[in-house]
Specification:
By secondary structure, the protein is mainly beta. It is built from 15 helices and 61 strands.
Amino acid sequence: MHLSPGQRLGPYEILSPLGAGGMGEVYKARDTRLGRDVAIKVLPQHLSANHEVRARFEREAKTVSSLNHPHICTLFDVGREGEIDYLVMELVEGETLATRLAKGALPAAETLRIGVQIADALDRAHRAGVVHRDLKPGNIMLTRAGAKLMDFGLARAVGLAGAGGLSTGVTVGALTQSPTVAQPLTAEGTIIGTFQYMSPEQLEGKESDARSDLWALGCVLYEMATGRRTFDGKSQASLITSIMGSQPAPVSQIAPMTPPALDRLVSGMLAKDPADRVQNAHDVKLQLQWIADGGSSPGAPAVTPARAKPAGAWLPWAIAGAAAIAAAFFAWDGRRPHDTANLAVEAAILPPPGVAFSSSTDNPLPIAVSPDGRTIAFCARNGEGPDLLWVRSIDNDDTRAIAGTQGAEGPFFSPDGRSVGFFTKGKLKRVDVTGGAVITLVERVDARGGSWNREGIILYGNSAYGPLWTVKEDGGAPTTVTAMDTANGESTHRYPCFLPDGKHFLYLARRAGAGSGRSPTIYVGELGSNQRTKVLEVASNVTYASGHLLYVREGVLVAQRFDPNSFAVSGSAIPLIDDARMDERFSRGVFSASANGVLVCMTGKNQTRTQLQWLDRKGTLLANVGEPADYTYGGTPELSPDGTTSAMPIANRERGTSDVWLIDLASGRRRRLTVDSLDHPAATWSADGKRVVVSSSAVSDEFMMDVMSIDGTRLHNFKYPRRLFYWPRSVSPDGRQMLFDSPDGAILGQANIGVVDLVTDSMTTVISGGEHLTALPQFSPDGRWFVYQSNESGSFEVYVTAYPSGGKWQVSQGGGVEPRWRNDGRELYYVDSDNYIVAMDVMAGSSFEAGPPSRLFQFHGAGGQWRYDVSADGSRFLVTRALKEDLASPVTLVTDWLRKTGSR
């Protein structure tokens, strides 16, 4: 079907044709809503007419659309206009790798660079359960920003390469047409070009998996390095015979300057039996990076491909022989390691089976390496259980969780490496790495990083708003140590790092409104003095190690020379690890470095996608709601009074803010409610369901709540008398009063629960929490009571009190947070200390009575807190849950990152 310029498919206006192939015609189009050019691929009518193929295509396309990676062409949308099915994809400008290879072999450095990018793209997709199945030079675009992998996963979706082999309804030539290039492509050699990169198992008609993609990548690497195809033949039959039975000439035989390790790697990727092949794309990426860094020079140890292991076997902490190399690395003379120029290794670290690392969004800075580089502390959870503090020695497998550390986040080591400081449930604590007593040092803390010097002083970030504080390692009264420059809009000091003298320290100063355009700044401060020195402007935490500052810039972990005496940086920032995990809303990357050249870094950009789900009272999944999104920390899936819609904050990572969206729970469609530059991390409904109250913070340091109609009109605004971030929580049944809180106010002794009269604008305090963390108030359905959580007893518990005044009852025992009412007021819910959702019958009339608690199911929501709501009858729970593939990202371990800086 031919489309003409000016014709529209939904909101997309056709501009010009780009190309055509068996998988459909491709057009350049204009997205009239967002004002951007896109590529439209129209499916052939013989595929659109097949209901099963079309449904399969849509399912596969939805999965592919979730892949967010700089080297994967983005799938924006799937649509149907009349009888036309189409895809909307990123418009990529450049030339295909096939076009470039027509000019001959690529230089070794370029081969390795492109290989790393494609392997990284495959790794991201494979972790999401998506296999390309048609990887070849014609599906790789070379752009100014690097390689882009095209047509991801779509070959299978139209039945071109499934378990049953090639579809008879589509020619193999269809596979060669890339969908989103900005120039037409020829179709010469399409038949040979398709079979050329198919693995033996695909040609046999067997089910293909990720290892088939690695075969194809091996063929592509071979062709880039040599300028020749890996296998060839004068006919399809002879080509298939060559692939199934012959071995290609070694890369180094054709290109003598090829690094020996690349020769071995390509050979390992082209093993006929998938079980003998390199097993995953992450290994391929690490090996290519190692080769690019000079790892294939004479005398350097080769990196061994990982082999498949039986189901349930221990996942190796350090692949590629890292444990043996680390053992040699840790033989030192008491001051620094012996020469390790040939012992550097980059390896993947995985948690034990069934255990998942805490993500950076719901657990700030969840990993740390000890000063001597021997031990790693990390935050992780087993199944749906709470986050715990875990420790492991790098050179053996004694991984263990430390008892009594539920809710652990932000670990940091003592100078001797024998103890770990960490934050949990509003407190700062410490524990020995061998376990034992957990000691509370500070009672009221909102974790923003910690550092520990040899004089026994712990320096820590105390709040989302405010300066740095210190406390002695044995406890005592905390004291402030930095002064806020409020005249210039500073709102927070965080992520401290002591310098070697133990007196000076680095920290990040941010200004109100992460998207304000005012650059966060790294300073050097000094204990006992308000003097400070500006170091550099960067929106990242910073670590000092081995004469360098390490920080994240534009998604890359970099190192820059730094003099700890003059506090001056010099030279250029040197890239260490691409795709470093970074949470822009909080300006924190997830990395840690020892004093002797060991580095750990969690990878994956913005891997905070979560799925909105309905669960029953047993925790069984009933349905997913809509597509995954970046539902933000602190936001609740607030159900509308009629139960049809949820108001939920979603992060805007580019701005570093959140917006409130309305989600139709039947269709999953989302509509943005707040359309401005402010930050809106929380919302609650009016009693009639026609309005939503949202929290708002402006770049001018104004903090407010806005009443908005559900069509997006701002109806009313409340500005606060204090410079605190207030959160709207619950509107009374008569629609007149609204409960709000400010957990951050505990640091200032102002953690109150208040009420706003929505008619008169008057604000009053109903619970004076003072320095206790008092939050999450919820009106009972009749408005005569409200429930809330507080740590006034030393740990978080759930309380019920009469409104507007009266008695108070503690309803949880042994820990409770996140309370909710059933709509008839006869049942109350909360989350206990083991992450179980608990239900209890209540009688809340003229007096209050509560029955025994009953655990329903264990649940770890995305963000850990404020992540569920309850249907009117209490039969279903609306929750958010992090995607498993995002939690599966490993941590990269580098045993001598200084080699990359030229310091060794």
